[in-house]
Design goal:
Helix content: 10-25%
Structural class: mainly beta
Number of strands: 13
Number of helices: 1
Largest sheet: 7 strands, mixed
Distance between the termini: 61 Å
Length: 205
């Protein structure tokens, strides 16, 4: 009887440990704020490319952080910038990219806390969107399946903006995106991070 009780206790303890492990290893979602930034070790020779705006004079609207929302957000036309007055649910970003990336041409959309990224196959353009006002920049690392050195596209335009890095990758090759945060003052990268799947450079799956 005592042995039976001990074996049941052992099974319960094992199940509890497994459940705790599952909870602690679940990756952070795009909207989950990290408890504290965790540094990501990057190769010392990683090339950092500062992304630019497609039209420095344009303004585009993005959803504001929930803490800043004071009312309903107006709809945003994905085809271009919005010129209507803003309400509490949106922020106006001057110097942002003229338009957000198109879901039909920008592949491998990937997001983590504070950052979104995708790869535009026509033109080999990497898009990096900064979605949180937290003092850090959005960073999108790009890896290839043919050995090209990793590069990171960093958006230093501020929260609520999209920046682009115009690259040239081998046709017939694949790229993979890694989105995370970047602190320009220290030159360090931070989690949460998320990886895309492999994306064909020519856009043909």
């Amino acid at each position: 009887m005592r042995e039976n009780w001990r074996s049941k206790l052992s099974v319960l303890a094992g199940a509890s440990a497994l459940a705790l492990s599952a909870v602690t290893t679940t990756p952070a979602l795009a909207d989950d704020a990290p408890v504290s930034p965790q540094e990501v070790q990057m190769p010392a020779d990683v090339k950092i490319v500062e992304g630019g705006a497609t039209d420095p004079g344009a303004a585009v609207l993005f959803p504001a952080d929930q803490d800043d929302q004071a009312g309903p957000a107006e709809s945003v036309d994905p085809a271009g910038p919005v010129a209507t007055p803003v309400q509490g649910g949106q922020v106006e970003a001057v110097g942002a990219a003229k338009a957000t990336p198109s879901s039909s041409t920008c592949l491998g959309s990937t997001a983590a806390y504070g950052v979104s990224g995708c790869f535009q196959h026509n033109g080999d353009i990497v898009w990096a969107g900064d979605t949180k006002k937290d003092g850090m920049s959005a960073a999108v690392g790009v890896y290839t399946d043919y050995g090209r050195a990793e590069e990171v596209c960093v958006n230093k335009l501020g929260a609520g903006t999209w920046a682009t890095c115009d690259k040239d990758y081998r046709e017939g090759g694949d790229v993979r995106l890694r989105v995370l945060r970047y602190d320009g003052d220290t030159g360090k990268f931070y989690q949460p991070e998320t990886w895309s799947g492999w994306i064909p450079v020519d856009g043909k799956y």
